[in-house]
Amino acid sequence: MEKQFICIICPRSCPITVDTETMVIKGNKCMRGRQYVNSELTEPRRTLTSTIRIESEKVMLLPVKTDRPIKKEDLFAAMKKISKISVKAPIKIGEIIVSDFIEDGTNLISTKTILK
Amino acid sequence: MHKSVVIIGGGPAGLAAAIGAYESGVEANDILIIEREKELGGVLNQCVHTGFGLTYFGEELSGGEYASRFIEKIEEYAIPYVTEATVLSVSKSKVIKFVSPQLGYTKVKADAVVLAMGCRERSRGTLNIAGTRPSGIFSAGSAQRFVNIEGYLPGKRIVILGSGDIGLIMARRLTLEGAKVLRVCEMKSHVSGSARNVEQCLNDFDIPLYLNSTVTKIVGEERVTGVVVSKVDENFKPIRGTGELVRCDTLVLSIGLIPENELTTEAGIKLDKKTNGAVVDQYFQTSLSGVFACGNVLHVHDIVDYVTAESINVGKACAGYVKGLIKPNKTKIPFEISDGVKYVVPQTFNFDPKKIDIILKRFVVYFRVSRDYEKAKITITSNGEELLSVIKNNIHSSQMHSVILTKKMAQVIEKNKNAKISVTEA
């Protein structure tokens, strides 16, 4: 069976087709497209980005992301956990906010520096 | 106050221009960035999603992470900036007047000015949608600001009109935050945003996309209670009898961006009707000598990485202007466009015959095409002589494209005093 994908790895958005029996992959302009399709066929993953509450003089929210893509099916459960997290400034960009926050080894990290 | 280079706008364009000017020899203290918001970074600060930096850094960053790469450099170089400042005017003699809580009313005389004010969103008013004027109508960018900066969810049952990238990104963001995005409507027969955003923002969450359809009426007194969605024909006219009432409490508009050129217009700088930005030469210098423009105030870009690359060069050109390396822009060579081209930036050339490559070794030409091509031939000619010819596959009207002019090509253009860019089916 032939399956169609749009690669989401870069703005080029390559249309990729895969023959799921022979695993012949066509349309990708780079290796990352191949990796993307393989991961889509086995276990689709996405990097989750969101915001959490922060006690700060300047801002209400701190932007955060998962430090690696998580399973697509875990996105909403992860959002639920994120909605309950609150931190205090100062926070540095890249700092781990909660390690292993959905019990699969993924850390939630800050994507902004808030000094006060 | 006097400064060599004053940059209006501390978003990605302004930050890169400042860095470009500094790295080309302008003293940090001779530069000033004027920013409207409380912090540098512009719209990147409300872009918590990733997808930035793939071209420029070769890695995927969030908006804030991308901005911080440049803000850290500004801090490291100790380039001065003023925040919460509103620029009131830019004069022909390059005097900039602004007000800010920190400095009060200030006049600064500049040798070179960079216009980097960015763009704003098209609003409901530009669409002429019938109906009432209730609350619950947001532009995608304001909805993004509410969710990501202020911490409010703009609504619970949402219809998005327009399929620009910000609208697609917001469809996902609002869904993840617990809202129900009922549908995304697009008047055209294709999506305005990127295919990857349709995939990861709509398809991942089973959000339906309705092409050839638009909102023809807004319903509700205090608050939006619904919108009427109708099919449109090939001239974008609503088809009678196709109207369908969709119950919702919020309408989000993602219908395009307009460069914010009020200051530019007041300074008497010539604008291009197609880009809604200034007419510039190969250094991105406007019709007013020593005033440059870059980023979304010049022409709306698809991705920030291109804004950065463009603006670093504008910073370099500013440094060149301040050092007297750029001749005043008097005799300009027009860069003509053929039917297949929607617009080109730069729109003019102003080469100094003996010093063509004194500031930039090569010149980037940005353009958009007026329709989709499966295989397009892009040519640049001068007096009928072909200077450049490239074939590119899958050229879409929704994407910005670029080609590069070398010193040799520039020499021919300078000699012949004309140039033309054409796109045809190959």
Structure write-up:
Chain A is built from two helices and ten strands; from the N terminus they run E-E-E-H-E-E-E-E-H-E-E-E. Chain A has 116 residues and is α+β, with helices and mostly antiparallel strands. Chain A has two domains: 2-42, no CATH class; 49-110, CPE0013-like (CPE0013-like fold, Roll), CATH 3.10.530.10. In chain A, strand 2 and strand 3 form a beta hairpin. The longest helix of chain A has 12 residues, at 31-42. The radius of gyration of chain A is 18 Å and the shape is elongated. Chain A starts with a strand and ends in a 6-residue tail after the last strand. Chain B folds into three domains: 1-120 and 258-328, FAD/NAD(P)-binding domain (3-Layer(bba) Sandwich); 123-255, FAD/NAD(P)-binding domain; 331-426, Immunoglobulin-like (Sandwich). In chain B, helix 1 packs across helix 7 (304-322), helix 3 packs across helix 4 and helix 4 runs parallel beside helix 5 (195-202). The longest helix of chain B is centred in the last third of the chain and has 19 residues, at 304-322. At the A-B interface, strand 5, strand 6 and helix 2 of A face strand 4, helix 2, helix 3 and helix 5 of B.
Q: What would you call the shape of chain B?
A: globular
The helix/strand class of chain B is: alpha/beta
The CATH architecture of the largest domain in chain A can be named as: Roll
Rg from alpha-carbon coordinates of chain B? 22 Å
Contiguous runs where pLDDT drops below 50 for at least 5 residues of chain B: none
**What is the mean pLDDT of chain A?**
93
| Most extensive interface between two protein chains, with residue counts | A-B, 31 and 32 residues
Highest-level CATH class of the largest domain in chain A: Alpha Beta
Instruction: Identify the strand order in the major beta sheet of chain A.
Output: 8-5-6-10-9
Instruction: Tally the beta strands of chain A.
Output: 10
Helix run count of chain A: 2
CATH superfamily of the largest domain in chain B: FAD/NAD(P)-binding domain
Q: Output the CATH class name of the largest domain in chain B.
A: Alpha Beta
Oligomer: heterodimer
Helix share, percent of chain B: 10-25%
Instruction: Indicate the proportion of strand residues of chain A.
Output: 25-35%
